[in-house]
Amino acid sequence: QVQLVETGGGLVQAGGSLRLSCVASGSIFSIGTMGWYRQAPGNQRDLVARITKVGNTAYADSVKGRFTISRDNTKNTVYLQMNSLKPEDTAVYYCNSDPSHPTWWGQGTKVTVSS
Q: Are the CB atoms for 22 and 78 separated by under 8 Å?
């Protein structure tokens, strides 16, 4: 069973930046593709960024050019650098594999962007 712990969220003004981290209890290299997801109140949880085990990335259109996903396989950690934040980025952010594993969801980290 893999445990994922997300940190780095907080309150930031529009235009600001945050860096999220996700530490896994097991080897993320063996997991393969990892993703960052977010869920705003009343909305479904959506994938916003993904990264393969060798570093190929893809982003949702809503964050493309502003967010950067990266990973350090030696530290079993996935990062999400978020720049030029907008109020619509407000959500709880989670990491998981892509496709997601149903029992691996952590508590997430809350990001609030004020206007």
A: yes
How far lies 98's CA from each of 49, 58, 61, in Å? 10, 11, 17
Half-sphere exposure of 82 (CA within 13 A, CB side): 33
What would the pLDDT profile of 62-103 be if each residue is shown by its tens digit?
999 999 999 999 999 999 999 999 999 999 999 999 999 999
Q: How far is CA 39 from the centre of its chain?
A: 11
SS3 at position 21: strand
Q: Answer yes or no: are the C-beta atoms of 107 and 54 closer than 8 Å.
A: no
For all residues of the chain together, what is the average pLDDT?
96
